Amino acid sequence: MVSRVIPVEAFDLVIFGGTGDLARRKILPGLYRRFYDGQMPEDARIIGAARSEMDEAGFRQFVKEALKEFVSKRYDEEKVATFLEHLTYVSVDAMGTDGWKDLAKVMRKDVVRAFYFSVGPSLFGEIAERLHKYKIADDDSRIVVEKPFGNNLETARALNRTLAEHFHETQIYRIDHYLGKETVQNLMAVRFANMLFEPLWNAQYVDHIQITVAETVGVGGRGGYYDKSGAMRDMVQNHLMQLLCLTAMEPPSKFEPDAVRDEKLKVIRALQPVEPGDIVRGQYKSQKESYIDDVENPRSITESYIALKVEIANWRWNGTPFYLRTGKRMKERVSEIVVRFKEPPHSIFEEDTGQTANELTIRLQPNEGMDLTVTIKEPGPGGMRLIDVPLDMTFAEALGEEAADVPDAYERLIMDVIRGNQTLFMRGDEVEAAWAWTDPLIEAWESREERPHAYEPGSIGPEEALILMHRDGRRWRELRS
Ligand code: NAD
Q1: Cα torsion angle, 140, 63, 79, 1, sign
Q2: If 462 and its partner were Cys, which of 13, 142, 269, 453 is the partner (CB 3.0–4.6 Å)?
Q3: What share of the chain is helix, strand, coil (3-state, %, to 5)?
Q4: Is residue 157 classed as helix, strand or coil in its secondary structure?
Q5: pLDDT of 346
Q6: By C-alpha distance, which of 29, 5, 79 is closest to 402?
Q7: 417 CB less than 6 Å from ligand 1?
Q8: How far apart (Å, rounded) are the C-alpha atoms in residues 201 and 188?
């Protein structure tokens, strides 16, 4: 069972930074896959725009190489050749005057114009300004901006103000690729299209919620950037916050951009300040490999791991904590939300029968899907013994292999930009509210010059994070290698 593919409107999509890493690995392969599936219309065009001196043929060759490397199943020479015909390139200097008139010339009227800012944030304002100055963008054009959206409230506000000088909020698509994941949207479907979960989705029935985004890789080549950021800014303020919002929000009145984003904003505004004792920060460290070597900063106190206990002060969640953790160089690469329900108020079974609480796991990667553990009787003549079994809602199982081959987050989000649907993009006030909650926490540990706890690379994180849960009589879902 596969969903129908409806082509989007004709478009001109300009990728600023079209020769960069993100364009090569995600944006261009994503567009090719949409083309392959018939979602990109005949008269769509993709215009690479970057500082590199390159001509159209050179850009097409560059994209072909990228597709060879990053498109696996759907790579098809003939299709690739046709896809490449949709591509052109303009060499543009975002900070100067070169190339802008050429770009203005290649843009068509009467098609959707979208501009993907796949460049460093310092160029966002420069590009926005020139798009207007050279009359390349109009009131219907859309811009897509990449993370990081500021690195604190002040810089995020400044960025919002700069973009607002040239574009309305309805034209700005702030991308958080976590929101483009199939399972994230499925979380909304499961919550709001079923009667089964929503009545139980509150402090009365939910013991706690865990959100984990664990990576096995270290900081890699991004050391310099990462060391100025850390796990809180790089992951919690955006990705984990978005997952928390979708899990915790009230049902919006409609599945419409502002209705959904209003509810997410209310959650962020209801987040309580986190006590220092409810935050554990870590840095990976062993004889062979350490964070400080990777970032080449022996004095760094930036965290490559963080765990927090977060409380939401509203009627629905009062007393049900959300435990968030994210880190690099951990044992398992996994992103998931675990909703742990309370145990039944009274057990009619003997104490050692093995009864536990239900758990709903929403897995974003790997193997996107959901499962719900249900306690049943262990089959056989052994008397009343209870076991937990997962009710697997993984797409491949229920819907067939083809349905499991879901579009990557980027390709889905780019198609949403062309359709003009902002539901899965962050609104400016959401981003600012998230920083307003994050900033004081960071300022507090920076002012204390607090050193992160060491953890072994390839482990589950620092001991102290286990204690954060244990002292509440709870434990993290186990990470597997
Ligand atoms: P990159 O350094 O690989 O590429 C930068 C691109 O910008 C190049 O095409 C370069 O030619 C172009 N550029 C630089 N200065 C320019 C100028 N003055 N005028 C015109 N073009 C100019 O960077 P990247 O990794 O592709 O990242 C792009 C953006 O996306 C960054 O903001 C980054 O934080 C964000 N991002 C990247 C990733 C990723 O996986 N690479 C993930 C999330 C967010």
Answers
A1: negative
A2: 453
A3: 40, 20, 40
A4: helix
A5: 87
A6: 5
A7: no
A8: 12
Number of H helices and number of E strands within the chain?
17, 15
| Phi, psi dihedral angles at 271 (to 5 degrees) | -70, 135
User: Which residues in 68-152 belong to E strands, given as ranges?
Assistant: 87-91, 112-117, 142-145
Q: What's the CA dihedral at 50, 55, 56, 62 to 10 degrees?
A: -70
The strand order across the sheet containing 142-145 reads 87-91, 45-50, 11-16, 112-117, 142-145, 172-174
**Cα 426 to ligand 1 centroid, rounded to whole Å:** 20
Q: How far apart are CA 167 and CA 164, in angstroms?
A: 5
Q: What is the pLDDT of residue 400?
A: 65
**What is the distance in A from the centroid of ligand 1 to the CA of 23?**
8
CA distance 306 to 213: 10
Tens digit of pLDDT for each residue in 10-25? 999 999 999 999 999 9
pLDDT at 348: 87
Q: What are residue 334's DSSP bridge partners?
A: 214
d(CA 292, CA 283): 8
Environment class of 438 (CB within 10 Å of its CB; exposed 0-12, middle 13-18, buried 19+)? buried
Catalytic-role residue among 86, 177, 239, 346: 239
User: Nearest-CA neighbor of 209 among 131, 316, 88?
Assistant: 316
- Give the residue among 273, 282, 159 at the shortest CA–CA distance from 230: 282
Ligand 1 atom closest to 50 (CA): 21
Residue 239 to residue 242: CA distance in whole angstroms: 5
**What was the pLDDT predicted at 347?**
85
Active site residue 239: yes
Biggest alpha carbon distance in the chain? 81
CA distance 71 to 26: 10
CB 16 within 8 A of CB 129: no
Beta strands in 85-244 (DSSP E): 87-91, 112-117, 142-145, 172-174, 206-214
Atom of ligand 1 lying closest to residue 96 CA: 18
> What's residue 72's pLDDT?
82
* Cβ-based neighbours of 432, under 8 Å, separated by 6 or more: 153, 156, 157, 160
Residue 95 beta carbon below 6 angstroms from any ligand 1 atom: yes
> Which burial class, exposed, middle or buried, applies to 110 when counting CB atoms under 10 A from its CB (0-12, 13-18, 19+)?
exposed
Ligand 1 center to residue 17 CA distance, Å?
A: 5
For ligand 1, whether the C-beta of 51 sits within 6 Å is yes
Instruction: HSE, CB side, 13 Å, CA atoms: give it for residue 465.
Output: 26
Which residue is associated with the tokens 């899907």?
Answer: 369
Q: What is the pLDDT of residues 420-442, one digit of tens each?
A: 999 999 999 999 999 999 999 99
